[in-house]
Amino acid sequence: MSKHVAIFNRKSRSEGDTDETMQNHRQITRRLCEERGFTYIEYEEVISGASALEERTELIRMLQDVEKGLFQAVVTVELSRLSRSGHYSHIIADTLAEHNVLIITPRETIDLNIDSQRFLYDIGSAVNSNEYRTIKRRMRQGIIEKAKRGEYVAGKVPFGYDAVIIGKKRTLVPNDDADIVRVIYNLAENGYGNKEIAKRMGKAHKSIENILRNKQYTGTLVYQLYNKPRTKGGIITDVIEVPNAFEAIVPMETHFRVQAAMKGRLRGDIDVKARSRGEVRTILKDLLYCNVCNIKTGFNLDRGRMYIKACPKCRAKGAQESVVLEAFYSQLEFVEKHWRELWEKALDKSSSAIGDDLTVQMETLEQSRSKLTNKLKKAREAYTEGIFTKEEYLTDKAAIDKELISIDQTLKQVKDEIEKRDLFTDSDMLEHRLTVLEKVKKLTNLTEINRLLKLIIALVYYQRNEDDSIELMIAPK
């Protein structure tokens, strides 16, 4: 009586040409069944052999059919096609043994109910699991080395670029959509919000945000390393950045100015994202804050006149908008004069104290990181020598790893700030403010004036005193 068997073919996505490899596996398993007179049902997957069991849909379906008593054997090219996970290999083996199902490969037939053969199966599963970890580690290291050389190793290509092979190196080159990216950056640099840009460009709001936050448009290769897959809650442990890895679509200066403009459209905690909403009926929309309790001040239109609302928290008195605007323009004139004086002085300076502070901060962080690395090394040695138990070592390691991740994240922020300082001198920043102010003076449209003011002003603190005098303080970006 001929056997009715299950053919199981699995191909990992990382193994090259999926179709050709899977076709080869089909030929081998089908030929084996035909030569031995087996009837069969095929199950196929394109997935890593170490994936979670719930993701192995075809394997689960086959095991369910095994439990129904449909098969006498499972035919596969090699044991590793069933699983590369030691834990899942045991689950598969227990299911097959319980229902007296053999495993047949071109090299061997395994009866899992025979102790010696089960023992060999377990050894083979352990070897496959270790081989997978070794291959995975080598592939990861190979990807990291390629990224450090400036090769584009990520799967997804940023909008506006094409991934091409030049001299055996995978890199990015701008395509026809690069002009769209430049327009998006230009709008953002001039104070337009993501939603307004999305509306103008006919794109999703999230797509605009992703484009504007992507540093790779400056020609800088950015590759993030995770402690485990993002789909499984992985966190970033390191970021590889290689400047001038490929042709830039936007200058680095533009990218940094856009990041500053995007931050400027957030109020208070950046995570709150209290964005500007509604019609612009005053040039101070979203800029005016109570000087007493630091709460954003609202406006109200009554009988054709605009009024500043009383503070909802401290009940500080409001005022007519015209009176506040008069005080604002007076204060702005003083601020402009101050900026111009600072700009003239800054032209004579070659460096800033802030830059020095950032350098000191970076050196301190790097020293802290070095100390933690040494501490981790000593803990590992103590565990190896039997001074620490495994539990003590793992507890220390988890705590140190957490600190290292925090330091690395802070280091990246500081390095970004230093990079900005290298690109933007104090004179550049002040000149930009003065240029924006000149544009404001020529405009009459409230929306446009408000948009430009937000590029150079963070907040305007308002207070009406008991004698009804108005005090304003402009806080620049």
From TrEMBL:
Q: Where is the Resolvase/invertase-type recombinase catalytic domain?
A: 4-150
Short name of one Pfam family? Recombinase
Entry's InterPro entries?
Answer: DNA_bind_recomb_sf (IPR038109), DNA_bind_recombinase_dom (IPR011109), Resolv_N (IPR006119), Resolvase-like_N_sf (IPR036162), SSR_resolvase (IPR050639)
Query: Which SMART domains did the record assign?
Result: Resolvase
What region holds the Recombinase domain? 158-268
Where are the stretches annotated Disordered?
1-24
GO MF terms held by the record: DNA binding; DNA strand exchange activity
Give the protein name, as stated in the record. Answer: Recombinase family protein
Report the source organism.
Answer: Paenibacillus sacheonensis
What taxonomic lineage is listed for the species of origin?
Bacteria, Bacillati, Bacillota, Bacilli, Bacillales
